[in-house]
Specification:
Layout lengths: L2 E2 L2 E2 L11 E2 L6 E2 L1 H18 L8 E5 L4 H16 L5 E8 L6 H14 L4 E5 H5 L3 H8 L4 H20 L3 E3 L4 H14 L2 H6 L4 E2 L6 E3 L7 H10 L15 H6 L9 H13 L1 E3 L9 E2 L6 E2 L5 H10 L4 H4 L4 E6 L5 E6 L7 E5 L7
Parallel strand pairs: 5-6, 5-8, 6-7, 8-10, 14-16
Antiparallel strand pairs: 1-2, 3-4, 9-10, 11-16, 12-13, 14-15
The structure holds adenosine-5'-triphosphate (ATP).
Adenosine-5'-triphosphate binds next to α2 and β6.
């Protein structure tokens, strides 16, 4: 590696001083070359996967955090630069978490002005009659993630319907996907395991969802945000103590190869194959709400029903069933689990740990 007085030279332009060591490639780059590499990878992912068509209306799920804010920043830039012809919108869900979401929404309001993107905010209070603070008062800290997650999912769909968009993009990155793969493995949730690595989901419903940061490392998003001075909000909220998420973050302590192992984890998830004989819960529109749902029994409406009837545990409790899966050697393993809607499932998987 060539060195200039005062540091290394960028390995791409061979001129400027390197100020970044890319976590993905370990290359030493100057800021400009890093920005270019970061943006081009997302541009090529969009093109190679035909994520958008000209004239489409696209909502960006905007939480004010680094991932979704950088997504809004990069997507607006690429849309201008490469003439995608997209109509972009910011869509935020206000869960009603005092001291957290109210502050992060201020960031989204600033982003709305900075990037000149129309903003739609939908709130749990308006949609469901409950804020997350009120739900926690009733249910306590345990299990509140279940409510928050299923309500947010539906709230994003309802906000997207208000905006009349064709697609919804979220800032889920490679680390989030690796974490979700591990989480679904721990839960034995085959249906979600097969969906969580897809770049686009819900193609058969009214609004499909895409993850343009599917292969983007969290560390690079942080670097990109820092060097571009992207206005983001960063604070953990008190309700984010979901135990399984915490478990799946065990691997964060595995040392400095975490980024590498996350990309392998995501790759392994991609390589899971569901056996053709497996009976899967079919996606569909839940009859009471009409919103898309992966199961016949819609958790959002079940949870809301429980809350309104003074039986909040109805919406957060587990259920029963069993999963059967086949390991790489073809031998079948049966395992009981809690999970009502799926019945007996079978899946085969090929671990991609040795693959590039
Ligand atoms: N309240 C919200 N309103 C709109 N979109 C949201 C909201 N919460 C999450 N999302 C979307 O879902 C993605 C993943 O959410 P997650 O809770 O994992 O946040 P995160 O990893 O902290 O991301 P971010 O840094 O964007 O907050 C976000 O990037 C965003 O696109």
């Amino acid at each position: 590696m060539e060195r200039k007085r005062g540091g290394r030279v960028c390995c791409v332009c061979n001129e400027a001083r390197a100020s970044v060591k890319r976590p993905k490639t370990l290359q030493h780059m100057c800021r400009e070359c890093f920005f270019h590499a970061f943006e081009s990878e997302i541009h090529h992912l969009i093109l190679n996967n035909s994520l958008f068509s000209p004239g489409e209306r696209v909502a960006i799920g905007a939480s004010g955090g680094k991932d979704s804010t950088v997504l809004a920043y990069v997507l607006s830039k690429l849309n201008r630069l490469h003439n995608y012809g997209l109509h972009l919108f910011l869509l935020s869900v206000d869960e009603g978490i005092t001291g957290y979401r109210d502050d992060s929404l201020q960031t989204v309001h600033r982003n709305h002005l900075q990037y000149q993107l129309p903003l739609q905010v939908v709130s749990y209070k308006d949609l469901y009659g409950w804020t997350m603070d009120q739900i926690v008062d009733v249910i306590g800290f345990k299990n509140n993630c279940t409510f928050c997650g299923v309500f947010r999912r539906q709230a994003l769909d309802r906000g997207a319907a208000l905006l009349k968009v064709d697609k919804l993009v979220t800032g889920h990155n490679a680390d989030d996907i690796a974490e979700t793969v591990l989480l679904n493995l721990l839960r034995g949730d085959v249906a979600r395991l097969s969906r969580c690595t897809s770049i686009t989901t819900g193609e058969n419903g009214p609004i499909s969802r895409c993850k343009p940061f599917k292969y983007t490392y969290e560390k690079e998003i942080v670097m990109y945000a820092y060097f571009n001075q992207v206005d983001t909000f960063h604070r953990m909220h008190l309700l984010s103590k979901c135990i399984l998420r915490v478990c799946s973050r065990v691997d964060q302590g595995l040392g400095k190869n975490r980024t590498w192992s996350h990309s392998r984890q995501g790759k392994s998830g991609e390589n899971f194959r569901i056996l053709k004989t497996t009976k899967m819960p079919g996606p569909g529109a839940y009859q009471r709400s009409g919103y898309s749902c992966s199961q016949k029994w819609c958790k959002a409406w079940g949870g809301l029903d429980g809350l309104n009837r003074g039986l909040p545990k109805l919406g957060s409790g587990g259920s029963r069933g069993s999963v059967g899966f086949e390991n790489g050697n073809g031998s079948k393993v049966e395992k009981s689990r809690r999970g009502k809607q799926s019945g007996t499932l079978g899946f085969g998987f090929v671990l991609g740990l040795n693959q590039t």
